[in-house]
Amino acid sequence: MKDKEKIFKHLQDKLTSVRDRENEEEIDELSKQVALARVFLRAEEKYHEVKSDKVEENC
User: Fold this and answer.
1) What local confidence, expressed as pLDDT, does residue 28 receive?
2) Residues 6 or more apart from 33 whose CB is under 8 A from it?
3) pTM for the complete prediction?
4) What's the rounded Cα separation, in Å, for the pair 23 and 9?
5) Domains of the chain: total
6) What is the pLDDT of residues 8-58, one digit of tens each?
7) Which of 8, 1, 2 is CA-nearest to residue 48?
8) 25 is in which domain, residue-wise?
9) Which of 26, 33, 37, 40 would be 8's cystine partner, CB 3.0–4.6 Å?
10) Which residues neighbour 3 within 8 Å (Cβ) at sequence distance 6 or greater?
11) Residue 11 in contact with residue 37, Cβ under 8 Å?
12) DSSP letter string over 17-54?
């Protein structure tokens, strides 16, 4: 999970650094990548919570 969080942080930092530029296309693409990374991390976290709950129920 830590590697994924580092990737997300890197994408956020890169997006922040290009916001001052005029390249709309690059900003849009980075915004999409950051949003997708955020959704993925949340989904993975929720998956692990649900998986842990099911394991506890079976014990």
Assistant:
1) 82
2) 11, 15
3) 0.59
4) 21
5) 1
6) 788 778 777 776 666 777 778 888 888 888 888 889 988 988 888 887 777
7) 1
8) 2-58
9) 37
10) none
11) yes
12) HHTTSS-HHHHHHHHHHHHHHHHHHHHHHHHHHHHHHH
